[in-house]
């Protein structure tokens, strides 16, 4: 689908909700540029930029990266994209980050993946990661071609410490507490669209149909 007007979207969902998979499908089907806050964070920490060093010290001390630092980082990457359509993943996580984004850009839609916590717990505990790239595999529905090895580099996969059942429960609770106000913020603006289910492959057709409708109406307005 060729976009005639800039379209900007945010995707939200707890860790393990299939957000990465859905994001990849959106960028492939609709040509949006995918920006992941995790990737941007990693790139800045690896490049030892001023913000990267600041964030690394927060993370090393077990603190959350301050809202203004996170907002500066993401907005700087968005500005570098210029006049293009994008899908933002992992940001905003707080209302103040959402406000900072709104001050600069108009968000057309917010896609919220609503997956039961029980399903996510099951998913995450069978999740293995290639740490250098951030590529994630799931033994149940997205296994590596060779067990225990990354498809691209052949390097070993590891299970993150935070994919243990106790930590997963804690992370999900913390996600809920932190992002509920953000969902409410976007709900009140009339741009929130929630998709519920337990399987990414069953949720995806609904997301795809919704975006087709949204983007068709966007293109018709331009025409």
Strand content: 5-15%
How would the global form be characterised?
globular
SS content category = alpha/beta
- Largest sheet, described in full? 5 strands, parallel
Rg (C-alpha, Å): 18 Å
CATH superfamily: P-loop containing nucleotide triphosphate hydrolases
Q: Supply the number of structural domains.
A: 1
Task: From the 3D structure, determine the CATH topology.
Answer: Rossmann fold
CATH class: Alpha Beta
Order of helices and strands: EHEHHHEHEHEEHEH
Helical residues, percent: 40-55%
Known CATH architecture: 3-Layer(aba) Sandwich
For the termini, the CA-CA separation is 15 Å
Mean pLDDT: 89
Major sheet strand order = 2-3-1-4-7
Number of continuous helical runs: 8
Domain Adenylate kinase active site lid: 127-162
Organism: Seriola lalandi dorsalis
Keywords: GTP-binding, Kinase, Mitochondrion, Nucleotide-binding, Transferase
Pfam family, one: ADK_lid
List keywords for this structure.
single chain; Rossmann fold; two-stranded antiparallel sheet; globular; 8 helices; 223 residues; five-stranded parallel sheet; 51% helix; alpha/beta
